[in-house]
Automatic annotation (TrEMBL):
It holds the Pfam family MauE. GO terms for cellular component: membrane. This is Putative membrane protein YphA (DoxX/SURF4 family). It is found in: Membrane. It is a multi-pass membrane protein. Keywords: Membrane, Transmembrane, Transmembrane helix. The chain crosses the membrane at residues 52-73. It comes from the Bacteria. Residues 12-75 form the Methylamine utilisation protein MauE domain. One of its GO terms (biological process) is methylamine metabolic process. Signal peptide: none annotated.
Length: 94
């Protein structure tokens, strides 16, 4: 198996595992919202921040899973956005 193909397969597997991880954690926090909210309030940061994080963290986790899913299902769409970044990084190395 060619190294490039092996890397591509490993990237797909890693992406799918991360999609499962972020989906599970986000949904778990939403399903058990009161327990999750109490856990945030049990941390050392202020109560106002804990309240905001109780809503923002699960939504962010599901958004990350959605973006990863989009990158797995439609890989060509994201390459158009990543090319200028990778080109500018290579120019810095010169």
């Amino acid at each position: 198996m060619r190294p490039k193909m092996k890397k591509h397969i490993m990237d797909k597997i890693a992406s799918k595992l991360l999609i499962l991880l972020w989906t599970y954690t986000g949904l778990d926090k939403l399903i058990q919202f009161e327990a999750s909210r109490k856990a945030f309030h049990n941390q050392t940061f202020p109560a106002e921040l804990a309240e905001v994080l109780a809503y923002v963290i699960p939504i962010s986790e599901l958004l990350i899973a959605l973006l990863l899913l989009f990158s797995v299902l439609c890989p060509g769409h994201l390459q158009a956005y990543s090319y200028p970044v990778s080109a500018s990084e290579s120019e810095r190395e010169l």
